[in-house]
């Protein structure tokens, strides 16, 4: 029944999408050419030319929605993920259409109309899915549109999975039974109509896995598996297909992908160059003030551990009194550290002391955004005390990071800082970097620290 309902829902969604695309396209055409909101240019194409394009646009967009899995079951899919998939599909559709117009040398086809269509279509597609999901969630909370599942295994992950299902009745999952082993499995599958079997064996019981899967597939029931490696594998592992052999990467690191690294490095180079130009008056003034009021060098170099555990010198404006190097290495700076100079308090409070790190970014030792680098002696200490601490060195360290804008900077919890760093590493996107940079302006430079 659930499978039939899902197929019907998918067909209804496809029809709704086709209708939305057609209606949005017509409305965009009306706004551009008939509403009086836009100046009419010479060489306007006839309406027939615009509407004939729908014979390619509608099936093309539906195909893109299918490629981006917008017709897959989305009981546990977040609104944010669905919106991003809609934006990606529409963005690719927009670019393909522009390229087609370029190659057929159709310069009079209104790009303004296509831009209007792009934004309105995304809004309506998301709104339609939001409405459908809201209705379904209300139905599921009332006990309708349920999926009945059978749990097999007694791993810790099995309990956590069932807790999630109980906490989210809107997903519509009902645990029919929870078996510790496979003894009653065949009899239960024969006597009941189940939608899914979820296998959550302990690692030591994996010898039974092949038989359990064989029984489930003979019964024709959809089968899923929760591996008992939750304390080892990240929450978003990357599965690589090596000529038919599934290889699970312990941790998903988007910046291991070449195109992502190149894009991030390009933003770093452009951003650091622009920032150096913009902040050059501030940096020159700081150089003069520090040189006139304090002893020692204006720029302070400190060893830090960066990408692939490589040691580099991180630059700062001097904000502390001159001290013995070995003594300085052994001490951790605190909020009201007595070693901080009067000028140092000001430049630390506004994070001006960090600006020389823009040159570390240009040299490729740091990034604008990333986990903050630590001194070698503390890295040696934390690597043995804090699980997964060294994972942060799989990406370039940053001038600011997800941990810092969430309050974990300076003399704060290292464990929480690593938790936020790992989240950043596993969930990196260019948009995420932009968000951190924007928040840094308010929470980093002007947070009164």
UniProtKB/TrEMBL annotation:
Name the enzyme group at the top EC level.
transferase
InterPro entries found in the cross-reference section: Bact_transf, EPS_sugar_tfrase, Undecaprenyl-P_gluc_Ptfrase
Task: List, alphabetically, the Gene3D superfamilies matched.
Answer: NAD(P)-binding Rossmann-like Domain (3.40.50.720)
Q: Where are the transmembrane segments?
A: 12-30, 50-71, 83-104, 110-132, 266-292
Highest taxon of the lineage: Bacteria
Pfam families on file:
Bac_transf, CoA_binding_3
Domain named Bacterial sugar transferase: residues = 264-444
Q: Where in the cell is it found?
A: Membrane
Example GO CC term: the record gives: membrane
Which GO terms of the molecular function aspect are on file? undecaprenyl-phosphate glucose phosphotransferase activity
For membrane topology, the record states: Multi-pass membrane protein
Enzyme Commission number, as recorded? 2.7.8.31
Query: Which keywords fit this entry according to its UniProt record?
Result: Membrane, Transferase, Transmembrane, Transmembrane helix
Q: Which family does it belong to?
A: Belongs to the bacterial sugar transferase family.
| Name the record gives this protein | Undecaprenyl-phosphate glucose phosphotransferase
């Amino acid at each position: 029944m659930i499978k039939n309902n899902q197929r019907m829902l998918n067909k209804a969604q496809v029809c709704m999408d086709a209708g939305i695309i057609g209606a949005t396209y017509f409305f965009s055409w009306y706004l551009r050419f008939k509403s009086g909101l836009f100046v009419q240019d010479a060489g306007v194409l006839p309406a027939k030319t615009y509407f004939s394009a729908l014979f390619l646009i509608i099936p093309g967009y539906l195909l893109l929605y299918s490629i981006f899995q917008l017709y897959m079951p989305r009981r546990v899919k977040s609104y944010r993920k669905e919106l991003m998939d809609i934006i990606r599909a529409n963005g690719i559709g927009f670019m393909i259409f522009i390229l087609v117009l370029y190659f057929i040398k159709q310069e009079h086809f209104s790009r303004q109309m296509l831009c209007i269509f792009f934004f309105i279509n995304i809004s309506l597609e998301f709104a339609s899915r939001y409405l459908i999901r809201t209705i379904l969630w209300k139905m599921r909370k009332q006990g309708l549109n349920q999926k009945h599942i059978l749990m097999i295994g007694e791993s810790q992950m099995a309990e956590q999975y069932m807790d999630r299902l109980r906490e989210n009745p809107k997903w519509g999952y009902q645990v029919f039974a929870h078996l510790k082993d496979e003894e009653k499995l065949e009899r239960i599958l024969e006597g009941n109509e189940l939608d899914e079997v979820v296998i959550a064996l302990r690692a030591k019981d994996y010898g039974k896995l092949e038989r359990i899967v064989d029984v489930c597939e003979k019964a024709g029931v959809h089968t899923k598996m929760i591996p008992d490696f939750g304390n080892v594998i990240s929450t978003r592992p990357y599965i690589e297909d090596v000529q038919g052999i599934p290889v699970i990467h312990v941790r998903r690191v988007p910046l291991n992908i070449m195109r992502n690294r190149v894009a991030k490095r390009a933003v770093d180079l452009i951003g650091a160059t622009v920032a150096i130009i913009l902040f050059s008056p501030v940096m020159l003034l700081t150089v003069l003030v520090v040189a006139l009021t304090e002893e020692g060098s204006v720029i302070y170099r400190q060893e830090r551990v960066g990408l692939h555990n490589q040691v580099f010198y991180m630059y700062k404006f001097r904000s502390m009194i001159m001290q013995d190097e070995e003594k300085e290495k052994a001490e951790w700076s605190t909020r009201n550290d007595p070693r901080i100079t009067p000028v140092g308090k000001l430049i630390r409070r506004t994070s001006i002391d960090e600006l020389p790190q823009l040159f570390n970014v240009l040299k490729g030792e740091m990034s604008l955004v990333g986990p903050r680098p630590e001194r070698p002696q503390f890295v040696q200490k934390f690597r043995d005390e804090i699980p997964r601490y060294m994972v942060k060195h799989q990406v370039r360290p940053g001038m600011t990071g997800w941990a810092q804008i969430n309050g974990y900077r300076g003399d704060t919890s290292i464990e929480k800082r690593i938790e936020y760093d790992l989240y950043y590493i596993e969930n990196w996107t260019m948009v995420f970097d932009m968000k951190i940079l924007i928040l840094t302006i308010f929470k980093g430079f002007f947070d009164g620290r």
